[in-house]
Queue: 2 jobs
Job 1
Amino acid sequence: MRWCAGLILLWPLMAGADVWDHGFKALLDAANAPPIGVEAGAARLEALEARMAEADPRVRLSLEALIDAQRRLKARAARAEEAAPAAVLIGAAHYSGAATPEALEMELELRVTLRREGAWKAAPLIGDDVALRAAQVDGQDLPLYVERGYYIWPTQRVGE
């Protein structure tokens, strides 16, 4: 997907490179967290409730079995996290613009790859220390919100 924006960068902010990192990696990590299987979880819960209605509600479990179950669950969660593909991948960015005495006026074309069909994704686009004039995909204005110092595009779209 191509994302285009007209923006103004404030010239004094160009001085420090660390100014541009406001938790960008944390935002991408959150956007790329493994999906939650709501439908699968609901089906399992219904099956469990049906079995519980017929069974003895008490459970006896040895400490060794409990510790073993916890270890297996942690290992399974770690494997699932490693295997899940990223939902939001930021690709190439192309900047063009002109400098004025007060500001740097630029246009940004950003390539974003979105995965996980049907899932909501939060794609961080650019830092909120700019005055954003427009943000569009395929000529359509984007809904944006600000989180951790970045303009975020919430979307269910997939593709590049």
Note: The first helix runs from residue 24 to 31.
Job 2
Amino acid sequence: MSRTLAVQGVLLSFLAMAVVVAAGTLLASFATHAKGRCNLLESMILVASTAVIMAGARWVATASVEELFSGIMPVVFVATAVAFGGYGACIARWRRRSWLEGFWFGLILGPLGLLAEANVRDRH
């Protein structure tokens, strides 16, 4: 039982830290660069990305040791990485950069990629 709680605690703390970094970066980028404009596609990407991360956190919190180390865990990690890619794509669009650049930054580097994309100079 203690092994399950330890693994869940580590995974949940990582997800919580990642969500805090992502939320702060998104809010700062939106406030300074989007100027209150967000199109429907960006809104859908943000909502879907947030839902995926929340579902992954809920699954990690309620999973047993066998489920944590089963074949579903890579699916959770890939889904979380794609969610961060969606966040990165929105940040890149707000910064007037290629959405693919932002997607790859978010996908590969996660929350650190969001910070990197948010701090790259705007393309005019």
Note: Residues 2-34 form the longest helix (33 residues).
